[in-house]
Amino acid sequence: MDDDITAESVDVLPGFNLTSNSLWDTVPDDITDDLIFQLDTIEAEEQARVPAAPAAETPAKLPTDSRPSPVRPKRFASTTEAELQRLEQARHEKKTVDSTAWAVRLFKDWCKESNLPQDFEKLPVAELATLLRKFYGEVRKTNGDPYSKSSLCNIRSGIQRHISSPPFQRTINIMHNEEFSNANNVFDGSLKKMKREGHDITKSHAAISEEDLDKLFAGDTLSTKNPVSLQRLVFFSLQFMFCRRGREGLRDLNKDSFKCEVDGSGIEYLTPTCNEHEKNHPATVNEQYNRKKKLYATNDAQCPVQAYKLYLSKLHPKCHALYQQPKKNANSHDPIWYNNCPLGHNTIGNTMKEISLDAKLSQIYTNHSIRATAIRVLNAAGVSDRIICSLSGHRNINSLRSYCSDASDSQKREMSVALHVSKFSRKQASHTISAPPDTPSNQQPNIAPSVRMPQPVPNRMPQPVPNRMPRPVPYRMPQQVPYRMPQQVPSNSSRMPVYQPPIAGQIVQRQSPTTLTTAQTTGTATATASANVLNMVAPQQQGFPTLFTGCSFEGATMNFYFNN
Predict the structure, then answer these.
(1) Lesser CB count within 10 Å: N end or C end of the chain?
(2) pTM for this prediction
(3) CATH 1.10.443.10: which residues of the chain?
(4) What φ, ψ does residue 231 adopt, rounded to 5°?
(5) Rg of the Cα trace of the chain?
(6) Which CATH number does 210-277+291-404 carry?
(7) Among 347, 350, 320, which Cα is nearest to 253's?
(8) What are the backbone dihedrals phi and psi of residue 560, each rounded to the nearest 5 degrees, phi first?
(9) Predicted confidence (pLDDT) per residue in 278-317, tens digit
């Protein structure tokens, strides 16, 4: 037993070693056996708790030429059927997919309530057209109100996308095919009825007025004094200068989305680092996207480039998102103003709404109002439509009409004042208007203290253009040539008398070829002559010559007519 104890070292107490001869010399003989028994028991328990290590296997040595070559990484990715379906659905925007699902669900709910088949995707064309014709006339909201114009258009477009997409892939078009003309007539009639009844309240995103723009930059709402105002300044500058859409791609922006560069003139500007996914530019095969937007520095208190650089220096280093949650109790000396958490979709989408409330603007604006304001400002500055489209991303210049068709508030005020001044000037021309006794004649009454009345615009109506039509030429009647009776040519046997035209008031009667008698008469008479009598009647007009005007034959009578 002594040989077994001394064969290995057992630590009973710190600093003691049972293999030491000096230790055995100090232990009494009466307790040696008990101590050895306890040590054996402890050692057995420790070995039972610790599992025995497996024996190491000696690897077999392979020949040099038979060893396997190192595994190379795969070049091509491996995809499942579910991943392929997600890629196939990714060709549509998420909002488009949600709108399509909402339209199909609404159509099926109506079919279920009307006890009609819900699998409309497989119906014949004639039955589907009849079903849609009734659906367009009966579709309503949950509260019974009719849908707006844009909602009805989205419903019809969503149904068309659903039946033309996999797995149905029908080639019909419910908006243009002749078989659906009756259904589309009901659809158009519903829109017109809605407008007549005053239910069409669709409004576009209003542009920010000039007064509200001045109020925004005059206060501390957009400044570099605190984390919230700095973030709003950067947000407004990027949306306004780059003419970005309201909510598109805001959550996907990160610290590397923009970079600072210097042009050939040494002016610093901000530009995007990549082509973002936009609604009008969805990265199709035929897409040509070579636009490079630039946001130049203004070197003032609200310079967008300097504000962006300051904003990047205050962001949290562990968060890669561009828009992060601001700290509540941050001061100007803190190196980090934002938390390690990005802003949510709804928070970024309502940024302009919060700015409008904080700055106490005249109305609540949306993020898309910034884009509308940028397009209107560029159009008022005389920038061509092609250059504006290069910044806004519109494919067709006709799309800008919805932004620039309406007049601004200042222009509407000028028109109102011009119409009022025109009415006032007409009234003043016919009546004398005197000022009230309490109001000076050269001072306008205080109509609304909070409204800044514009200065009256002078009447600039165009002066009437004088009539430059050629003067009418007086009509000149051709002078009548007096009739001269032809002279009778005398024969060789006898000389015939010459007939002269009678004067006024005379009746000449021919009784014989050689005899003429004259009788005085007044007025006008009708003469009747025989074969040998010729009567010539003329009215008596003293002081005017009598002219022959014509003659007529009545049987054997020849009448001569004269005029003064």
Answers:
(1) N
(2) 0.57
(3) 210-277+291-404
(4) -65, -40
(5) 55
(6) 1.10.443.10
(7) 320
(8) -110, 140
(9) 665 565 545 555 568 899 999 888 899 999 999 999 999 9
